Automatic annotation (TrEMBL):
Pfam families: DMT_YdcZ. It comes from Halalkalibacter krulwichiae. The keyword Membrane applies. The keyword Ion transport does not apply. This is DMT family transporter. Keywords: Membrane, Transmembrane, Transmembrane helix.
Length: 153
């Protein structure tokens, strides 16, 4: 595994948490759906400029792919919308660990059945325990958040 890919992924995780916190705060003033729209409009403008200078793919290939693959676009919008809704209510860390648990659950199912042309990796006890420990972590984080919010009242 390339150390650069690990670092890029780590930086991606850092930026996701910062974006979640900022979007959650922005949504209190601008609104949830409006914040989500602003996120995607800004991202669209940024990526359009980025494609002009660095793009090497074929954007028109989207008309040639199976239609079910285009669902990823809507799933991304739902993801950001749900994050903008959740962060102001349960906090950044509780939101992020819940996202990770969701990713683990569906990742285990996808790997186990080999959906979307992925490797088939059977479900084993290590994966069960990984998921269990994440759920336990969420419980303690959520309880800590609840106690902290009660103390601030």
């Amino acid at each position: 595994m390339s150390i650069m890919m690990v670092l890029f992924t780590l930086i991606g995780g850092l930026t996701l948490s910062i974006q979640s916190a900022v979007n959650g705060t922005l949504s209190r003033k601008a609104g949830t759906i409006e914040t989500t729209l602003l996120t995607f409009l800004t991202g669209t403008m940024f990526l359009a400029i980025f494609i002009l200078f660095f793009g090497q793919g074929n954007l028109l290939a989207i008309f040639e792919v199976p239609k079910w693959q285009l669902s990823a676009v809507f799933l991304g919008v739902l993801f950001v919308l749900f994050i903008v809704i959740a962060v102001p209510r349960i906090g950044v860390i509780a939101t992020n660990i819940t996202v990770i648990i969701g990713q683990l659950v569906i990742g285990i199912v996808i790997d186990h059945f080999g959906w979307f042309n992925s490797l088939v990796i059977p479900l084993d006890m290590k994966r069960y325990f990984a998921l269990l420990f994440m759920i336990i972590a969420l419980y303690f984080i959520y309880k800590g958040n609840t106690r902290a919010s009660e103390e601030h009242r």
